[in-house]
Structures are given as C-alpha cells and as structure tokens.
Amino acid sequence: MRQLIIGFRRAAAATTTASAAGVFVLPGQQQTRLVSRTIASSAAAYIKSSTTCSIARTATLAQGVNMLDPRKTFTEDFFFRQLFDEQSHTYSYLLADVTTKEAILIDPVLEQAKRDAQLIKELGFTLKYAFNTHMHADHITGTGYLKQLVPGTVSVISQSSGAKADKHLVDNETVKFGRHVLKAMSTPGHTNGCMTFVVEEQGIAFTGDTLLIRGCGRTDFQEGDSRTLYRSVHNRIFTLPENFRLFPAHDYKGNMETTVAEEKRYNPRLTKDVEAFVELMNNLNLPYPKMIDKAVPANRECGLYDIPKEA
C-alpha cells in the first residue's frame, strides 16, 4: 500500500511540476484523465508486484493476483445468512433456494439451535440438511437438536470424520437444495474429516477450520497434520477463482469473510514455504482446548449427545 501511495504522489507531483515549468497546462477534464491513467498504472504495477515460487519451495504468493476482481453477485433465487455464536466464536451459515424454500445450515451450534430453527420457520424455509465441516472440538454441534426441533432434517458430515450422521460425504460429492448445488471438497489437516463446501455459481466457499481469515486451524490434536493442511489449502482452496468469497467456521477478531486473492497474498502462515509453515505450527504452544473432552464425544454422535432436556 505504501508503494501505491507513493505512486499516487509522484503522479500528482509530475503534473504540478510540468504545469509550473510552462511545459503544458491541460484543461481540467484532460488533466484529470491523465492523472487517473497514471494512478491506474501505478495500482496495476503494485497489484502485480509480488513473487511467485513453486509449492515445493514456498507458498504461491499470488503473482498477478487481482485484488480488484469483482465478486459474483448472488442470483435472485439464492438466500444467504451468516449467523454467529459469541461463546465459541463460531459462524453458522443458512443457505436456501428462495423459490423451492429448501434450506441447508452449515456448522450449527447447540446453544443456538432454537434461534436457528425459529429463523428458518419465520422465513418459511424447510431445513433439508444440517452440515458440519468437520468434527468440532470447541463446541457441540446443533445438528442433533435441530433434528428434533425441525423434523425431517438430515445430518451430514464427511465419511472420513469418524462421526455418525444420516449422510456421509466423500470428496467432490454434490448435494442439492432446490436448484442450487453444494460441492464437498476434502481438505484435511486440521482433522482427517475436514471439508470445504463450495457453491460455485455464487462464488462462495465455506472453509471450516482449514482456512481462517489470515490464519488456519491448529494441527496439534485430533489427527492434525501441518503438511496435509498446507497441501489442502494450496491444492484445493487456493486453486479456486481468486474472487471467490471465503467464509470460515470461526473468527476471533470481528472479521466476517475474506477472498482467495486476499489469503494468497496476506495470510501470514500460508504464504510461507511448507517447511517454515510446519515449524511455525509445531511451535504455537497453544493451550489445551477447553471444550474438547466434552465436544468431541458429543460430535462423534453428530450432536445426539447431551441435548437439552427441554427438547
């Protein structure tokens, strides 16, 4: 950004100097167009200035990444709502076909199941599937409770997760809600069963804990493996179109979304080479997860354990 600002200043200074020296004085509109073209050239040079290396040596640092690529606009028949649980800093996502009213919910939280069920009822949707991106260790999924609150809901998780569910997904399997299609991509590393859910037509992906905003999930428990996570991000998520919007399962700093382009350029962990990434992940020295001893057994049952008695 500093380079971009310097480019702007130089463009303005060059115009002022030339005018003062009597070299030329353009009419207002022409002068504005000249400065605008100079600024655009400086911006383009800045955007394309980073270095790219092969994945064997380092992360793809996004040479030619266009941070200004327009995002896709949601189609008129696509509904999207981002929901939040303050206690676990978990994002849940409600998606629906506005025409057929079929809906899906990604990463529901037990304590928010009543809220989610009420919202779905108020909007007139039918909850078809309740997905989990992986077997969480920091909260109990709301899937089991939602199956009671919204009869007919089908629980969904990766076949590799080790968790029970009505439906198990394998890599590249697709699921439909109304006319919309969600594709499940296997992105292990945080856990064996981690999946990223992609809705290609809308230009969005739900990355779970595999890729967070300017971060990633930890790899020091529950089958975690740093090299596997690195490959998952670079080979699966970073190969999506750069203007795809990415929505994680958690954020602890108030960020709500990111893009493929942003993470390829600015993620402080995953822009490192693989060896540096592994070393960093091996030395995070994070505390033992507070909820893991309760959450993992419950989520292995896909949330059917410890459901509130009033259900």
TrEMBL record:
Gene3D superfamilies: Ribonuclease Z/Hydroxyacylglutathione hydrolase-like. GO terms for molecular function: metal ion binding; sulfur dioxygenase activity. InterPro entries: Metallo-B-lactamas, Mito_Persulfide_Diox, POD-like_MBL-fold, RibonucZ/Hydroxyglut_hydro. Residues 89-250 form the Metallo-beta-lactamase domain. It comes from the Eukaryota. SUPFAM superfamilies: Metallo-hydrolase/oxidoreductase. It is found in: Mitochondrion. The keyword Iron applies. The keyword Nucleus does not apply. Its EC number is 1.13.11.18. It catalyses: S-sulfanylglutathione + O2 + H2O = sulfite + glutathione + 2 H(+). One of its GO terms (cellular component) is mitochondrion. Keywords: Acetylation, Dioxygenase, Iron, Metal-binding, Mitochondrion, Oxidoreductase, Transit peptide. Its cofactor is Fe(2+). Belongs to the metallo-beta-lactamase superfamily. Glyoxalase II family. Homodimer. Monomer. Interacts with TST. May interact with RELA. This is Persulfide dioxygenase ETHE1, mitochondrial. It comes from Anopheles minimus. The lineage of its organism: Eukaryota, Metazoa, Ecdysozoa, Arthropoda, Hexapoda.
